[in-house]
Each structure stands twice: as structure tokens, then as C-alpha cells.
Amino acid sequence: MNKRRRRPNVWLIVILIGAIGFFVYLNLFVIPTVPPPFIPTSTPTRNPTSFAQEADTYLAEGRIGMAKEAFQAAIKADPYELSNYLTLAKLQIYSGEYEAARVNAENALLLDKDQSYAFSLLAWAKGFMGEYLEAEADIESALSLDPNNAHTHAVYAYILALQVSNNVGEIGTVDIAIEESRLALEMNPDLLEARWARGFVLEITSNYEEAIQQLKAGVEIDDSIADLHLALGRNYLAVEEYDQAVFEFTKAYSLNPTDSAPNWYISRVYARIGEFAKAVQYAEQAVADDPSDPYMHGNLGSMYYRDLQYNQAIESLELAVRGGTTEDGVVVEGLPLDYTMSVMEYYSRYGLSLARLNRCSEAVQVAQAMLQTLPDDETAVYNAEEVIRICQEALDNPQTPTPTVEEGGETVPTLTPTPEMEAEG
Q1: Which residue in 150, 255, 346, 407 has the fewest CB atoms around it within 10 Å?
Q2: What are the extents of the domains in the chain?
Q3: Hey, how many other C-beta atoms are within 10 angstroms of the C-beta on 149?
Q4: Cα separation of 297 and 223, whole Å?
Q5: C-alpha–C-alpha distance, residues 114 and 153, integer Å
Q6: 178 with 201: CB under 8 angstroms?
Q7: Nearest in space to 391 (alpha carbons), one of 363, 418, 368
Q8: Whole-structure pTM over 0.90, yes or no?
Q9: Region 260-425: CATH code
Q10: Is the pLDDT reported for residue 41 higher than 70?
Q11: Which CATH architecture has domain 148-258?
Q12: Is the pLDDT of residue 188 over 50?
């Protein structure tokens, strides 16, 4: 009659206790660390000053491109830090990015309208862009805020020198440029811009040896600025130190390989010493650097002309003179005929190349345009008359053989032993 009792299942009890313990552990330690669903997780934010510190490191290594990127990141991280806009604008001027420099200088003035240095940088950017009146107004603003700022006086001298070099200066402009460049150097002889501006003023006044000394001092302060090496190369070229000129132009190109100017200058150096094949090589590279620039095509055509490759010369010079489209589809705007030395050279050699290949109807049109537009330039008139003379000789003596004659260090075919008068280069 007694009911038999069941023994408890020990293993089941153990499993239940373990499960309860596991859920208690999850509730206390795991679940609190899991972020709620559909809510973005937070990420650590980099200290904005670290970007500027990184940029300073790049500058110390001469890596301007990397420094500019770091300063742009610093501005993005902290758009209210004035110094980053100022330094970036300066580096962009060094790199030839004038519009970008202008924007950053203006942004700096939005943060502090009484920032003299920002007005100075803004003026420099505008000066390079040819906005001389606005640039001088900004210089006046900078000087009114800080009349003893060496940077502002140096930039003022540079802007005035730009006007003189581009033939838009007024009477007395060069004298003011000289005075301002001297003043900036007296105020701070260790300032890069003071050396640079003084060197440029000496260059435009044909004091090339002195300019070289100032520009070399600038390079010693900062060796990473392409335009500074370009300026030094121009002055070495002026004093016929050709190896040094090529070295500086090559250095400039290595620092800024997007600029066509260094290879343009190197081609002129080799043409000057009679190595026309090399001149063509570097002129071709200059065109590749900037295929839309008519001056680069004109220079290449001029080098082909010096190398006696008249068919190729005509192709390149025609793009420079008349404009057109390259084989790669790049549009080139033609250069109107004026008294600019290079433009006169391109038109002269275009007409002469056409004449020497007996394309006289085209050649005479070019010559007549030169006579009508440039009647006061002796060289242009001489070359135009030479084009007409060659074509007249060909018309009168169609079977006459073509002898050669030396003209300024080059041998070119012609019909009479009369050398051409052409601009040096």
C-alpha cells in the first residue's frame, strides 16, 4: 500500500542552475556593453592641432604638397583656426595656385578683418593674377594695419615689379619697387619674401648678378619653392651661365612637374647654344605639360624652325598663330599679332617657314599682316620683307637651287645670301 518516491534528476538540476547563471552573467556584464540597435556608434575624433603639427613636419622636409593637404585637413577639423588659412594661402602662392590662395586669404579675413598678413597674402595672389589695382588696395589696407611689416613691403615691391615686367607700370613704378624692396630687406634680411622680391626687382632692372645673389639667399632659406628656382634660372640664363640655368630649371620642374615654364626655358637655353635637337625635345615636353597654351606650341614651332624641320614648324606655329585643335582634341586659342617679342617671333618664323616651302600665298598674307600691324618694329618689318623677297625670288626663278646661309648661329635654306633679323632665342 506504500507509494514509491522518485529520485530527483541531478543532471537536470545542474543544467538549470548553469543556465540561470549564464543568463545572470549576460545581464550583468555583456548586455550593458552592446550598443542599442539603429544608433550610430561613436568614433574617436582626431585633435585638430595634430593636422597642423603634421603639416609642419612636411614643411620641414620640403614636402609642400603633403603640407597643403594636412593644412586642408586641419581647416576641415577646425574651421575657426586663423593660422591654418594663412599658412595654406602662403603655400598655395608658392605653388602657383593663386585663386585658391585668394580664397583662403579671404576666409582668414572673415575670421579677423584686421589681419594685416591676410591682406598682404591676398594682395600677392591678386598681383600674380594681374589684378593690380585691387592688389594695391589690399596692400594699403595691410600697411594701414601694420606699416612696419616687412612681408607687406616685400609683396608690394613684387606686385610693382610684376607691373613693370608686363609693361603696365606707370612712370615711377620701378622707382617705388626699388625703394620698397630695399625697405623690406632692411626690415628683415632673413625673410624669404624680402630676398625674393629684391631679386625680382633687380632682375627687371637688368642687375642680373645682384639678382642671383638675392635669389640664392632665398633658396638657402627655403629650397622647396619651384618659382624661386625658376627665377634663379632666368637670371643665370641672362648672364649666359647655361649649365647653372638648366640645373635651376630642372630643379623647378622636379618641384612642380605640372608647370610648362621650366621646359620652355630649357628649350630656349639649348637653342641659344645651337643644340636644336635638344631644344625640340624640351619644347615638346613643354607642350605635353600644357597642350592648350599657344605659347608652348609657338615655342615648339620655333625650335622646329631652328632645327630646319619646316613642315613640323608650320604645324605648331599655325596652332599658335591661328589656333585650332590638337590631335588629342585639345583646343588652342590663337595669339593675336602684337609687339610682344615671342608673338613677333612666332609670326616671323611661321611666314618664313611657309615661304621656304613655297607656300607663298599663305606666307605673303602673314608678311602683309606683320607690315600693317607692326610697322614700328625693325625686326618684324625686316622679316616680313624677307618673306616677300623669298617668294618673289621663287616666282622669278622657279628652278633656282636653294643654297644655305648662316643666320645668328643657324643654317637655313634661302635663295639669296641675306640673313634674317630675328629676336634672339
Answers
A1: 407
A2: 48-126, 148-258, 260-425
A3: 19
A4: 31
A5: 17
A6: yes
A7: 363
A8: no
A9: 1.25.40.10
A10: no
A11: Alpha Horseshoe (1.25)
A12: yes
